[in-house]
Every structure is written in C-alpha cells, then in structure tokens.
Amino acid sequence: MAWFLFISVLSVVALAVSLLLKLRGGSPRGPGGPPPHLPALPIIGSLLSLRSADPPHLLFQRLQEKYGPTYSLMMGAHKVIVVNHHLHAKEVLLKKSKIFAGRARSVTTDLLTRGGKDIAFGDYSPTWRLHRKMVHGALCMFGEGSASIENIVCQESRALCSTVSEAASRGVPLDLSPELTRAVTNVVCSLCFSSSYDRDDPEFCSMLRYSQGIVDTVAKDSLVDLFPWLQIFPNADLRLLKECVAARDRLLHRKYEEHKADYSDQVQRDLLDALLRAKRSAENHNTAEAAGLSDDHLVMTVGDIFGAGVETTTTVLKWAVAYLIHYPQVQTRIQEELDGRLGLDRTPQLRDRGRLPYLEATIREVLRIRPVAPLLIPHVALADTSIGNFKVSKGDRVIVNLWSLHHDQQEWGNPDTFDPGRFLDEEGVSPVLPSPSYLPFGAGVRVCLGESLAKMELFLFLSWTLQRFSFSVPAGRPPPSLDGKFGVVLQPAKYEVHATPRPGWET
Ligand code: STR
C-alpha cells in the first residue's frame, strides 16, 4: 500500500513535469527513425497508458490498432520495443539472433538465478555460450533418442493412468493438476538426478508449493522490477519469492553435493553427472570461458531445467485437457485414431508418433492457441541495430508478443477457434505448418532447449490417457475457464474433470 501511494504521488509530480516539458511521443515516425511510441512521462514512463484490466499480452496486441505492429514504450527508465508481427519477430530472433541475445537484469530474476547465473535469464557472453552448449549436449545424451527416457515417461504415464482410474472408479471429480505435475516432475527428476517421488512425498509437496510461488512472483514486470528502489518497502510478493527460492536452493544444493560426492568419470547416471563431467573437462582445457563457470552456475542450470521442464509441460497438458473438454468431437477423433492405428491391446510408444497425425495436430493447436510463454522472455539489443525500418539502440529491450503471432487474423483466419484440422494437409493425413506466424518454442540462439523432450512427453502422456479415458465436466460444474492467468507462464485456472474409462479399458 505504501509504495502504491508513493507511485501515485510520483505520477502527479511526473504529470506536472510533463506539462512543462511537452509530452514526448504518441506520434508515428517515418522510415529510419525509431518505432512509433506510446506517451511517456519522466520516471514512470508509459505506466499511465498501460493501465488496463487485460493481461499484458492482450493489451500489447490491442495497442497495435493505434501504433502499428511494432512500437515502443517506456517501462520506468527503460525503452521497450514490442514486436507483434512474425516478420519482425523473426528478424529479432533469427536473422539478428546474436544482436538481440541479451537479457536484462531484474530484481526478481536476480534473486531466482543469483544474478543471472542460469541459461534462461543469464545475459549473453562467452561463458553463457559454453554453458548452453554443455546443457544442450547433456540433454541430447539423456533426452530424445535415449530409450531410457521413453521408458521413464511410459512408466509415469502408467502411474498417471492408475490414479485417474482410481478416481474414475469412485466416480469422484479429479483435479488433474497435481497428478500431471508429479508425472512431469518425476520425468525431470529421473533425467536430472535419477530419482522420483511417491504421491505424498513431503519433498514433492514442498516442490509443488515453491514452484507455484516462483511462477506467481518472478519476471512479471512487477513494480519492483521496474523500480528496484521499491525494494526498501515491505513487499509480500518479494518475501514469498525469497522464501520459495530458499526452499528450492536447499533441495538443489543437497542433490548437487550428493552427486559431487559419488561422482565417477566412468559412469554417467544422469544429466547432473553429465554436467559435472562437462564442467571438469572444460576446466582441464583451461579456457577463459570455463573459468567463469562456478558451482553456482551448475546449480542454477539444474534449477532452470527443473522449473522449465515442470511448469511448461504441465501447463500445456492442463490446457490440452481443458480444450478437449470444451471440444469433445476433437477428443473423440483422437481416440478413434488411437483405436484404429494402435488397436486395443497395446499402449502407445514413441515410434507411433508418425501414425497419429491428428493427435500431433492437436498438440500443435494447443501450443498455438495458448502459448506457454506469451511474451517469451524479453530480449535486449547488444548493439545499435534495426528492426525493419526502425532504429533500435544498444540496450533497448525487445518483447516478442508470441500471443499476437499466434492470434494474427491475417495468418490464421479464425485465431480464437480451436481447430487442430488447420495443422493437417488437405487429405487430413499429415501434419503441416499452415503459417510462418508460429513459434511456440521461440527461435534462434535462445530457442527452447527442451523442445524435443517436451514434444515427447506431450505425445506420450496424452496418447496414454486418451486411449484409456474420456474427460468431461463433472456434473453440475462449469467447464474449465479458457482465460489464462498471466505470468512467466500462462497457466489455466484450476478445474476438475470427470474421467470415464473407455470401452475395453474398464479394468
Ligand atoms: C518456473 C518456476 C521455477 O521454479 C523455476 C523457473 C526457472 C526457469 C523458468 C521457469 C520458472 C518458467 C518457464 C521458463 C523457465 C525458463 C524458460 C521457460 C521461463 C520461472 C520459458 O521460457 C517458458
């Protein structure tokens, strides 16, 4: 409350100053100049134009009507360019990937990552590149292609199905969220630490709690991120974030120390072993990049893999089930495809992926209509450059509004309709990409590292559960809300499902 008052007082002061200074902005600029910009005041920047009941991705999409697809605004003292069209998005992410590879520091992400020692929020540097290469290598070794990860996902799918089956037999509505989270967490746990959790494991419960706390508070462009000096005021969000990060760090440290203690060059049990080995080998080569790579870097990386691996995949699965409940005809068509291609006597495997195009198209459509990270993570220009005809200065922040790309009327015709068919060719037999305005995993030097692992998990978890169950709204309940809750990931609101075993899978 105190800081809210403070901000209000500041707005009034800033308003007065602006009357003297003449309002900057509000007008489009010609080619070669800066992008059109929202009005901005000293100190508070464009905050007054950004007040809205809509979440940022919708507001930024709507502002295009007035300012065009690429425009800029001031967040506090920082210039932010918002990109809403795929051509400019690809210029930023692909064509000028390295120029736009920077990251801004913020109070909340600094807390989460010890000042950017991770990959997702860490700034671009030679050490960052080496670090990312190591993680990429380790993920390739243990990710897609390794039989063990398929086995782990199938084992978790089986456990998930038995929980659903139990709820179905008792006829009670089920909140799938903790069940999906546990399944996905166990995949990441096996991958990183070769361990997994039972349903009521206290460590797992604490993990659920702190992860949600972090998602609720980190990197939301909250006021303390805009005005770091606001930290001097009591702030409930910041306190929650600190507690959650401390709980996460205790767990990560314990795992890290355990792995270091039983490390051997001969056996690589999991991703953390692979990272330890890569770090040692880089150190033996004595490069400057490797010298910058501390224990903290490895711990923060595991934190990233965990956070990214769990929150994103779980969120997509929850959206998928919510949409399938709203569109039962899509659910039925997936099930007919499963019955026709697999029969009723075996469970899905990864190699069935090519034979289930409608399921593949549905996964693509879910990732389009509800992108996990609607604004990606903001990028920073590392040098003076341009986007289209617009000048961009070193240090400018760039937000790629993936939501706008995925809901572009010109590209998708009816962007708000859930229609997996748009991702199939005319015969309806093979998956296609109907528009270039589609980047669910981002692109370029910062493209998602977990893309193939995620696709594999989405395919297996959905095919296993849909083969056995039909999901619907429990009697007397409203259908799941399709509005997301905005944050680093766009999460669906909590909902419950009614699961019915399909014919042939009653036992
Ligand atoms: C989720 C909560 C947590 O415990 C740790 C992290 C750190 C990595 C974050 C993750 C978060 C949310 C999703 C992110 C991921 C890095 C890449 C991913 C932001 C905050 C996306 O870009 C979608």
Automatic annotation (TrEMBL):
Listed CDD domains: CYP17A1 (cd20673)
Localization of this protein: Membrane
InterPro entries: Cyt_P450, Cyt_P450_CS, Cyt_P450_E_grp-I, Cyt_P450_sf
Residues annotated for heme binding in this entry: C448
Coiled-coil ranges from the UniProt annotation: none
A single cellular component GO annotation: membrane
One family name in Pfam for this protein: p450
Gene Ontology MF, one: steroid 17-alpha-monooxygenase activity
Domain of life: Eukaryota
Keyword vocabulary terms for this entry: Heme, Iron, Membrane, Metal-binding, Monooxygenase, Oxidoreductase, Signal
Alphabetical list of SUPFAM superfamilies matching this protein: Cytochrome P450
Signal sequence range: 1-16
Cofactor: heme
One of the protein's GO biological processes: progesterone metabolic process
Family: Belongs to the cytochrome P450 family.
Protein name as catalogued: Uncharacterized protein
Organism: Muraenolepis orangiensis (Patagonian moray cod)
